[in-house]
């Protein structure tokens, strides 16, 4: 559609050029007609002033001037006809170009709208990520790496550590809409905040780490300490799909959380490598992930 609009626009220039030529020819024909009319008027005036002996020559001059006027009038009529044709052609080309441009814009708008709708539909079918922070006493929801909403939560004994856990929705239970969840504990024992430490390995023992069972009791205790409002709980339950995750942590969301990322949580008691020395501009509560003002804010570490 855009290519057609470009072709229609390119066709306007030759038509406009022909219109300008026709306008110039019409102007020349008008000038010739005025000259012929002045010559004829002069010839007639002289003929009226001549004596009878000179009348024949004067009348001849009048006839010549009159013939020149007729030819000039014919030229004017022809030039005007060409001008009207050129105007019609130029206007038709401009109208066609305008229509093609409007159609191209409409098609592009429809394409963009369809793309946005497709992205939104794809996002709405993506798993959600829910992050609950003891530090901020709030929950945050992202879907398809895009912030969806946030709200307050009540955490019992909010001054005491709750640990860091990652719950993942695995799938639906048989003949049920209930979702099966798995949990990963970032500490061996949540209440004591004891980190998981692997023992030293000998050469040839392999590069893998031994899997340590999550502290399910501590994870359940962390869930029991959290109270989510009924409206927020309903909104979350409507969009939970297999692959969705729930993160509970004492920490707030890291400043590394941004556009096209999921939640990034940096555990303050663990090594942070280059993240600790990297210089980043601080974000404030009213700033969204993209640097603008968000309809809902986020606290950042």
Helix and strand content put the structural class at alpha+beta
- Termini separation comes to 49 Å
Low-confidence stretches: 189-198, 284-301
- The CATH first-level class of the largest domain comes to Mainly Beta
Largest sheet: 7 strands, mixed
Report strand %: 15-25%
Notes on the structure:
The chain has 301 residues and is an alpha+beta fold. It folds into 2 domains: 2-124, Four Helix Bundle (Hemerythrin (Met), subunit A); 128-198 and 210-277, L,D-transpeptidase catalytic domain-like (Beta Barrel). It is built from 5 helices and 9 strands. It has helices spanning 2-49, 55-124, 216-224, 230-239, 274-277; strands at residues 128-133, 138-143, 146-155, 165-172, 179-185, 187-189, 194-195, 226-228, 245-249. A 7-stranded mixed β-sheet has the order 5-4-9-1-2-3-8. It has a two-stranded antiparallel sheet with strand order 6-7. A hairpin with a 4-residue loop joins β6 (187-189) and β7. Mean pLDDT is 77; it is low at 189-198 and 284-301.
Give a brief outline of the structure.
The protein is of the alpha+beta class and 301 residues long. Helix content is 47%, strand content 17%.
Topology:
Blueprint: H1 2-49, H2 55-124, E1 128-133, E2 138-143, E3 146-155, E4 165-172, E5 179-185, E6 187-189, E7 194-195, H3 216-224, E8 226-228, H4 230-239, E9 245-249, H5 274-277
Parallel strand pairs: 1-9
Antiparallel strand pairs: 1-2, 2-3, 3-8, 4-5, 4-9, 6-7
